[in-house]
Amino acid sequence: MHCACRYKHWGFKEENEVRVVVLPYPLHHEKFDKNMKAEGITIGEISRKHFLRAGALIPYIDLFAGVTSTADKKTLPIKRIIVGPTKNDQEKNRRINAVRMLIDQHDIKTDVTASGIPFVG
Question: Would 3 be classed as within a structural domain?
Fold first, then answer.
């Protein structure tokens, strides 16, 4: 688990990404607590929320609640969003526009570009 979330293929170097790894915290699990404390890791609790999809409740956590790029709120230092490889230009443009609409809704000001990595699939 320690390595899987820290390494990636060299072809994605241009993205210079920061990864957020979120694991479900087993409440009152002594071995887990002991291991985290031994590594100096402090885990804060994030409340679980739910939304409805096709009649089923889907759990999620909102990691970036209240984060925008407005001066009066906390901000993330997002300089650019790179949309991953796609099958064709139409799909690439659709995804770029979708990301732009989403970040506009949250008042996040940043560039959105397409990845130069070729689509393999």
Answer: no
